[in-house]
UniProtKB/TrEMBL annotation:
Protein name: CoF synthetase
The species this protein was found in: Mesorhizobium vachelliae
Gene3D superfamilies in UniProt: N-terminal domain of ligase-like (3.40.50.12780)
Taxonomic placement: Bacteria, Pseudomonadati, Pseudomonadota, Alphaproteobacteria, Hyphomicrobiales
Length: 418
């Protein structure tokens, strides 16, 4: 396997597809999906034979994939072996094993081949920074752990890639990051914001928020500091799902994933994804935990790939409350907006559902008391309007940078929604 050829092939394909009309793109995608259903999917024991149509396949999710891990990969690798490999050097023979961060028991595992790793790299370069590639780029990736995906890039001559481990804390690698002088930075928004507040000496040409939901409250702080528009890479253990284009549109990675959408109310949808270019771990009609708001308009850049207006948060973080009319759901964006719109001085908060009818609002002590009271009142008014009897407790406490877990400003701690 020639890694560079795989990456270059994927880069070229990704660019080529992005110039098609929507109708041509859909024909290309339908053929690629059909090939996947006929040739790749049946290799996984869970499936065995090609379905007549994608819709004939059952919907899958993380719980099912983890419970029957060996039936979804073509090498019969068991979850036990994969966890052992992941804890060691992330390798199982020629395969790379990675895991998502998360609470124990809720972590996802993935397994990919060398060829897939390079194809992933080619695709991400083609989407994220095609114009920078030929001038030599230095990419700093700052994520909670080394997922194994990024090792492939370190070896390439066109791209210098450095990985910085979030879990050990930014102060331990600040000097190394500044010396590396990255042209592209990929990091969770809370870390980009930390760079701003601590005045890290960085001068990237492009900055991507990744791995956590980008809250509108973080965007201006980060953009002002870097004097650049902030772009997004929406990726998860399950793969690469969307990347911002040069016109600012957040395009779904429909060139490698077929998306179906389940309505989640309030104009939001949760995706079912079929990764039709993956051949090692088969992922078909896999239900993601994310809430997306789809764009109605195509992007100015002319790409046929559909856009997402916003990744609103996770389905797990929807508040589930009791109202006079029965159980209700309140989505994270509605809750977040209630807090932020209460007072312009609020630029950080935590809103947590801690019990069936209890909610905690945390605001930092330096925020003015009248702003805190306004936010408290706004959340109470929202919940009253939805006819719930939930109590909202205001807590004034510092909101420290937590590097060991994903930042969720709106969080439901009742356990899983499904
Ligand atoms: Zn675009």
């Amino acid at each position: 396997m020639n890694g560079l050829a795989e990456a270059a092939g994927s880069f070229t394909l990704t660019r080529w597809v992005s110039r098609k009309s929507r109708a041509d793109f859909e024909r290309w995608q339908a053929a690629a999906l059909r090939r996947f259903l006929d040739r790749d999917l049946p290799q996984a024991p869970f499936y065995r034979k090609p379905p007549a149509r994608l819709a004939d396949l059952p919907v899958t999710d993380k719980a099912l994939l983890m419970a029957r891990f060996e039936d979804f990969n073509i090498h019969g690798l068991t979850a036990t072996d994969a966890w052992a490999a992941q804890a060691d050097d992330g390798r199982a023979g020629a395969l790379t094993i990675g895991a998502s961060t998360g609470t124990s028991g809720n972590r996802g595992l993935f397994v990919i081949s060398e060829a897939e790793k390079y194809r992933w790299l080619g695709a991400i370069l083609a989407k994220a920074a095609p114009d920078l590639l030929w001038r030599g780029m230095r990419v700093a990736v700052i994520l909670p752990q080394n997922t194994g995906l990024y090792d492939s890039a370190r070896k390439s001559r066109l791209v210098k890639l450095a990985f910085f481990d979030l879990t050990v804390g930014p102060e331990s690698w600040r000097a190394a990051l500044e010396a590396f002088d990255p042209t592209v930075i990929i990091a969770p928004p809370k870390i980009l914001r930390h760079f701003a507040s601590e005045s890290f000496r960085l001068r990237p040409k492009r900055v991507f928020s990744a791995a956590e939901t980008l809250d509108p409250v973080d965007r201006p702080v980060i953009e002002d500091f870097f004097r650049l528009p902030l772009d997004q890479i929406y990726m998860a253990t399950e793969g690469l799902f969307a990347v911002t284009c040069r016109q600012g549109g957040l395009h779904l990675a429909e060139d490698s994933v077929f998306f179906e959408f389940e309505p989640a109310g309030e104009g939001l949808a949760t995706p079912l994804v079929t990764a039709f270019r993956r051949q090692t771990q088969i992922m078909a009609r896999y239900r993601m935990n994310d809430l997306l708001r789809l764009s109605k308009e195509p992007c100015r850049c002319g790409s046929p790939l559909r856009c997402v207006d916003e990744i609103v948060g996770r389905m797990d973080d929807v508040f589930r409350l009791m109202s006079q009319d029965g159980p209700i759901l309140v989505t994270p964006d509605v809750l977040r907006n209630a807090v932020l719109k209460a007072d312009r001085r609020i630029d950080d908060f935590r809103l947590v559902q801690t019990g069936p009818d209890s909610v905690e609002l945390r605001l930092p002590p330096m925020l003015a008391d009248d702003a805190a009271a306004a936010a408290h009142q706004a959340v109470r008014a929202l919940l009253e309007m939805r006819k719930t009897a939930a109590t909202v407790k205001l807590i004034r406490a510092p909101l420290p940078l937590e590097t060991g877990r994903k930042l969720r400003r709106v969080e439901c701690r009742l356990g899983r929604a499904r």
